[in-house]
Write a structure and sequence with these properties.
Blueprint lengths: L2 H11 L6 H27 L1 H4 E2 L6 E14 L2 E14 L3 E5 L6 H9 L7 E11 L5 E3 L5 H7 L4 E4 L3 H4 L6 H12 L5 H14 L5 H5 L8 H13 L5 E5 L7 H18 L2 E6 L2 H7 L2 E6 L2 E7 H6 L4 H8 L48 E3 L5 E2 L9 E4 L10
Parallel strand pairs: 4-9, 4-10, 7-8, 8-9
Antiparallel strand pairs: 1-6, 2-3, 2-5, 5-6, 10-11, 11-13, 12-13, 12-14
The structure holds adenosine-5'-diphosphate (ADP), iron/sulfur cluster and magnesium ion (MG).
Length: 401
């Protein structure tokens, strides 16, 4: 048999193989669906009543309510975030943890409306952001013109890589000034500079006048991240999203940056959504923890619930795989197997193929959320008789969009 025939046979066997005909069908479907979604969004954005809503609980800053964010890719629909429910209460830190690719960043980008559209779309659910006057924005429908007044002002983000977040051709002072100027149109240039210097001092820059006139490449990684924090906090946001803020920094600087974030959060009375794959970072800072796996929340609760009483086999596995100071082990535990293919998710528990605790019930549909205490919720069949069933995560049928 010719090599070409052999290759095409083995390619066809693999689940990721797509024929030219299928590929054309996917492209047509994506074009049609994303066009429809963009139109629906544009229409909703014209009417404030369609993007104004009410918080379920006024004490929350943000409520994610069954949020589904999908990517319409050439290989099919990737359900990056699929039925995510959690709240960020006022003046608190919520840690979002999970391994790479589980949908942490996509959750935060959905909130900031920074998804690469039209490929990435929030196709279902509501993201409510508290305005503080008894009403809330439903971010999913909010038009860009309104988002521009919220983003960087009431809602700001600190990214993983401080070098790429800062513009290399502008001085530090100009970059911090820009944010303050944009959201405070009536401030004089002198007041803006004074506010920038105040922010630089607040984030622990000793030589603030000198740093004001420096370029990003003249600063160390830790200092650059402090500048990014200054930019994020310049307008006293109600929520700071920190997406892996310390992953690119070395360990001693990590601790300083986390301390700084925690202190500033208390000073400004903001909340933090702290996204990380590092359980150690969350343990020291978070009040509440949300554990994600393959685009869904598998467990959520207070830091004490998650760290001292983990229930979901994935969370238990994560805890077992973290090194403990003073405890000698030959080899650290690792969770066997790998995450399922995001284009072709199974209809049973996503963790089942890796789960060492699975039971007879696990072959059924995806498990419901079980409330095991006032604060602790877990999605696993093992706990069905130990709490109240809250319901099943709701996926969106893309064919019906
Ligand atoms: N621009 C994109 N196009 C297609 N798929 C994407 C895109 N961005 C993210 N994804 C998908 O979303 C999933 C979640 O990504 P992400 O939220 O960035 O993961 P993480 O938890 O590491 O932050 C990834 O597995 C990837 O398949
Ligand atoms: S539902 Fe079953 S397979 Fe899924 S995590 Fe729980 S025990 Fe494991
Ligand atoms: Mg990420």
């Amino acid at each position: 048999m010719a090599l070409k025939d052999k290759l095409s046979k083995s390619e066809k066997k693999s689940s990721s193989y797509i024929s030219a005909k299928e590929s054309r069908r996917i492209t047509r479907f994506n074009r049609k669906t994303t066009k429809k979604l963009e139109k629906k969004r544009a229409d909703a954005g014209k009417d404030p009543a369609l993007y104004t809503t009410k918080m379920k609980d006024e004490n929350n800053v943000v409520e994610f309510d069954n949020v589904c964010t999908y990517f319409f890719t050439d290989n099919g629909v990737v359900k990056a975030v699929d039925g995510v429910n959690f709240n960020v209460p006022r003046c608190s830190t919520v840690g979002v943890v999970g391994e790479s690719g589980c949908g942490k960043s996509v959750t935060s980008l959905s909130l900031m409306q920074l998804l690469p559209r039209p490929t990435g779309q929030t196709v279902g659910g509501e993201i409510r952001f508290n305005k503080g006057d008894g009403t809330a924005y439903n971010i999913v429908n909010t038009p860009n013109s309104v988002m521009e007044t919220i983003r960087g002002n009431k809602l700001s983000m600190i990214f993983q890589e401080p070098m790429t977040s800062l513009n290399p051709v502008f001085k530090i002072g100009e970059q911090v000034n820009e944010v303050i100027e944009l959201h405070n149109k009536d401030m004089s240039p002198e007041d803006i500079k004074a506010r920038t210097l105040e922010m630089l001092e607040l984030v622990g820059i000793a030589n603030k006048e000198g740093v004001y006139n420096m370029y990003p490449h003249e600063l160390s990684g830790g200092m650059r991240q402090r500048i990014c924090i200054a930019i994020a906090l310049a307008c006293s946001p109600t929520l700071i999203i920190a997406d892996e803020p310390t992953t690119a920094l070395d360990v001693t600087i990590q601790a300083q940056i986390l301390d700084l974030l925690q202190n500033l959060k208390d000073k400004l009375q903001s909340s933090i959504m702290l996204i990380t794959h590092d359980l150690g970072v969350v343990a020291g800072m978070a009040d509440y923890v949300v554990v994600m796996y393959s685009g869904r929340i598998v467990e959520k609760g207070t830091a004490d619930d998650i760290f001292h009483h983990p229930m979901h086999p994935y969370t238990i596995g994560l805890m077992a795989s973290k090194p403990v100071v003073g405890k000698k082990v030959e080899e650290l535990y690792n969770i066997p197997g790998s995450v399922p293919n995001p284009v072709n998710m199974p209809n049973y528990c996503y963790f089942k193929d890796r789960c060492e605790m699975h039971c007879d019930k696990c072959g059924g549909v995806y498990p419901p959320e079980i409330q095991v205490s006032d604060t602790h919720v877990v999605s696993c069949y093992r706990y069905c008789d130990q709490g109240k069933e809250l319901g099943y995560p709701k996926s969106v049928n893309v064919e019906e969009l």
